[in-house]
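Subject: design request, 443 residues
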């Protein structure tokens, strides 16, 4: 699916982009609210209506599946919105999406809006009614549920609720709401919910955006019970304080805590339970990294293992791999870093000073790799418990016009910072070495 303004150039570029898809769709949008008409588009209602119809028909020339969104629908006059929906369906839109673009609506209001459209638009059953809710007031999921209760049958959502400003309706939350309240809603999604947590973690890792601990469904505390009365109830019957099982979203049962005396069998077994399958050489490398970590920590938890394997696999694909790191810092001294990198069979050494140990280490890497990055964002969070917890560093780095995110974990914060930064360096070097790829339109 490609998103396009109701502009000829956008529609044609979008058609080219989706032409190679198995099930292509063009999603055209045009603002309809009074404030957008007056200040952004400077057009009257009849002009907006004609423009939408014209470009929906143009999109249908390229693609049989066309979706239309009247942008800022929740702040659009109801009678005009109904006219837009009817005209869009007549023009060939198979899906009409009703967006709460700025997250302004409340659930009762948004549900009433959907009900109004079903009562007013004569051809509404000729299209699927979808909703696209933003979370500016924290009600994206609630508004989406209200819309489903009043007839909508498609919800546009994102993993971890990622999106513009405060984000969008969180996929994992709307999916589990439908699954948990199936008797009330009478709906199902067909989504394999046991992969929700794993997908959430993957998206968090790739985007560099951490999931808050108390995030519904996929947060670290989503199934944690600390209060004594809750724990007592849980011991008697889990349903007293759990409305869904952790396994429903892919969270494993009791963790098997590994340590430095754990053998390969226990290590391999736990990785398998976490859904990680490694080749014998990969297993040996990961086990060696595990023993190194276990020497630093008393106990190695699931999150430790996931980070360890991820970082080890990343190292195998990188141009530059960290071999050695030493930093010197203290009160009244100039922070200095000495770094040794492997590039294939070549061993590179360099040192530099900086404004703190992390800055010194990153400057050293810039010297060695010949590419200079600008650190835009740096964050650190503990991903396991205890004084010897693994710290995960997330960075966002600009290399000229390219901006990349990286993550790495270690019991040493400086080492994690270097590995996260180095992953960005390796990826930008790879991207710049690749030719530009464009799709060809199907004939």
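Subject: RE: design request

Done. Sequence follows.
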């Amino acid at each position: 699916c490609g998103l396009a303004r109701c502009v000829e150039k956008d529609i044609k570029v979008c058609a080219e982009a989706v032409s190679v898809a198995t099930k292509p769709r063009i999603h055209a949008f045009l603002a309809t609210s009074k404030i957008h008409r007056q200040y952004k588009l400077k057009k009257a209602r009849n002009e907006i209506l004609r423009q939408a119809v014209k470009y929906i028909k143009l999109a249908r020339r390229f693609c049989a599946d066309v979706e239309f969104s009247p942008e800022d629908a929740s702040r659009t006059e109801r009678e005009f919105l109904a006219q837009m929906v009817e005209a869009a369906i007549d023009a060939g839109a198979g899906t009409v999406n009703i967006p709460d673009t700025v997250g302004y609506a409340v659930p009762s209001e948004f549900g009433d809006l959907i009900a109004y459209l079903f009562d007013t638009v004569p051809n509404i059953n000729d299209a699927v009614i979808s909703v696209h809710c933003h979370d500016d007031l924290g009600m994206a999921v609630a508004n989406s549920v209200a819309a489903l209760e009043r007839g909508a049958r498609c919800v546009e959502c994102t993993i971890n609720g990622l999106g513009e400003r405060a984000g969008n309706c969180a996929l994992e939350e709307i999916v589990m709401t439908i699954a948990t309240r199936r008797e009330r809603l009478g709906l199902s999604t067909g989504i394999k919910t046991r992969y929700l947590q794993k997908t959430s973690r993957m998206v968090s890792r790739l985007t560099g955006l951490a999931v808050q601990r108390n995030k519904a469904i996929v947060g670290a505390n989503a199934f944690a019970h600390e209060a004594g009365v809750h724990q007592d109830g849980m011991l008697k019957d889990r349903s007293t304080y759990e409305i869904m099982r952790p396994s429903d979203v892919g969270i494993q049962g009791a963790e098997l805590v590994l340590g430095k005396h754990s053998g390969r069998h226990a290590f391999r077994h736990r990785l398998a339970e976490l859904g990680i399958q490694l080749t014998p050489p990969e297993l040996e490398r990961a086990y060696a990294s595990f023993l190194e970590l276990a020497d630093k920590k008393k106990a190695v938890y699931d999150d430790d293992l996931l980070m360890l394997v991820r970082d080890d696999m990343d190292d195998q694909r990188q141009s530059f791999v960290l071999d050695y790191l030493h930093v010197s810092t203290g009160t009244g001294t100039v922070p200095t870093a000495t770094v040794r990198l492997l590039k294939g069979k070549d061993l590179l050494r360099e040192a530099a000073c900086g404004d703190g140990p992390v800055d010194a280490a990153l400057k050293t890497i810039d010297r060695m790799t010949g590419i200079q990055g600008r650190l835009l964002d740096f964050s650190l969070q503990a991903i396991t418990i205890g004084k010897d917890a693994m710290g995960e560093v997330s960075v966002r780095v600009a290399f000229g016009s390219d901006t990349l995110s990286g993550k790495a974990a270690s019991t040493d914060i400086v080492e994690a910072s270097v590995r996260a930064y180095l992953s960005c360096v390796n990826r930008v070097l790879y991207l710049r070495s690749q030719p530009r790829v464009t799709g060809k339109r199907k004939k």
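The longest strand covers residues 374-382.
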